[in-house]
Design the sequence.
């Protein structure tokens, strides 16, 4: 192997990384503590032959980046160079649609296609929840129904993954890992599956990339599985300050009386009017209001010297 080479990060757990260079998969670690590296990154590596280590010395420019906000309002990278974000939701347990919205807003802000995968489609979807799924579909997000357990709809989902670099996201317990196992029977999607830490113990990969084999007449793709979460806040640096990543608000905001309308209580607001006439989902609008409050709180959390940073 050459002393220097470029590679793709295919798994990340803290500072424990795995990279792919050609057909070879190698354990690696960052050179220095200032490098922030996530699954999907393209990186430049050097071989430390003295210690038999692969060191990542540079993160190459990212085409896209999904990022989240921490409690201080700062941005933290989640996964890089993806083209599609797939939010996995089941009918039961009932999903937190406000978290779903925040993931989709983050995707919109990053220029990433947002898709909804309704897992456990063998379970009955109550009419109210189905209306909310339809509202997301109307807002411009693709929708696929599937069942990891029974195999229903998996070919349609594979079709959506074809030709894309996708990340699966969602709350804990929605069945993401089961869905990956169903889509990729040869993949080992179990905790502690990839790497060992410095003391030889197995570590759980935070994110792991898999290759999706092409179906007849369609391209293959890459699928990144990510850990389940309880909550998610989009990185405020990446959000449009007026629409916060809601496509239906972006489409209507030009009709507002004021150019800087926040769509909360301003007169002549086209968004408020659309909610009143049921042209826009009232729950989606409430989700926007909640994210607006969170956005304000996170800006304030930065402190006076950093609030205008974008």
Sequence:
């Amino acid at each position: 192997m050459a002393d220097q080479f470029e590679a793709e990060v295919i798994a990340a757990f803290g500072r424990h990384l795995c990279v792919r260079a050609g057909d070879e998969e190698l354990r690696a670690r960052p050179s220095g503590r200032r490098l922030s590296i996530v699954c999907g990154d393209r990186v430049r590596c050097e071989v430390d032959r003295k210690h038999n280590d692969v060191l990542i010395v540079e993160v190459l420019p990212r085409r896209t980046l999904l990022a989240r906000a921490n409690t201080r309002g700062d941005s933290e990278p989640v996964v890089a160079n993806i083209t599609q974000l797939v939010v996995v939701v089941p009918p039961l347990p009932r999903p937190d649609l406000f978290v779903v919205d925040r993931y989709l807003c983050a995707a919109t802000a990053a220029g990433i296609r947002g898709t909804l995968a309704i897992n456990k489609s063998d379970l009955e979807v109550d009419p109210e929840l189905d209306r909310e799924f339809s509202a997301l579909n109307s807002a411009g997000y693709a929708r696929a129904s599937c069942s990891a357990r029974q195999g229903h709809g998996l070919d349609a989902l594979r079709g959506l993954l074809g030709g894309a670099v996708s990340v699966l996201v969602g709350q804990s317990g929605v069945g993401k890992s089961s869905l990956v196992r169903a889509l990729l029977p040869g993949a080992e999607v179990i905790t502690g599956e990839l790497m060992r830490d410095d003391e030889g113990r197995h570590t759980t990969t935070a994110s792991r990339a898999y290759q999706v084999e092409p179906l007849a007449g369609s391209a293959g793709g890459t699928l990144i599985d990510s850990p389940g979460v309880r909550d998610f806040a989009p990185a405020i640096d990446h959000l449009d300050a007026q629409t916060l990543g809601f496509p239906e608000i972006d489409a209507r905001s030009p009709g507002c009386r004021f150019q800087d309308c926040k769509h909360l209580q301003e007169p002549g607001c086209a968004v408020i009017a659309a909610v009143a006439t049921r042209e826009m989902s009232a729950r989606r609008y409430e989700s926007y209001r909640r994210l607006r409050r969170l956005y304000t709180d996170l800006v304030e959390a930065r402190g006076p010297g950093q609030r205008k940073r974008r």
